[in-house]
């Protein structure tokens, strides 16, 4: 059996194809979650905190005075972008919770299936 045919057999196995589909769907889902966090949740959090825009919250470590995060980055100043970090943490929590729900649902479906011999 040639290496090409072995690779074809490997690539056509269901688990490899399922994994590829999962990665593609996961990438698309990540964009949705990012948008939900940055476009829906964080503006609401900002409204509840008096209009604070967390994506533009940072500390310039070099002592410079910058009005925006982009301005500080463009100047090459060392910064702690804690607002962006907060966005990423919130995105992670949402993705982890959705994955928890999906796995819980899959496990429930597996338990309801009759056992095969």
Describe the structure.
The chain is mostly helical and 117 residues long. The protein has helices at 3-11, 14-48, 69-74, 82-112; strands at 59-60, 79-80. The chain has one domain: Non-ribosomal Peptide Synthetase Peptidyl Carrier Protein, Chain A (Orthogonal Bundle), CATH 1.10.1200.120. Strands 1-2 form a two-stranded antiparallel sheet. Helix 2 (14-48) packs across helix 4 (82-112). The relative contact order is 0.09. The mean pLDDT is 83.
Describe the structure in brief:
This protein has 117 residues and is mainly alpha-helical.
Poorly predicted regions: none
CATH level-two architecture: Orthogonal Bundle
Distance between the termini: 33 Å
Number of helices: 4
N-to-C SSE string, H for helix and E for strand: HHEHEH
Task: Enumerate the strands of the largest sheet in spatial order, edge to edge or round the barrel.
Answer: 1-2
Binned, the helix content reads 55-70%
Mean pLDDT: 83
CATH class annotation: Mainly Alpha
What structural class should be given to the helix and strand makeup? mainly alpha
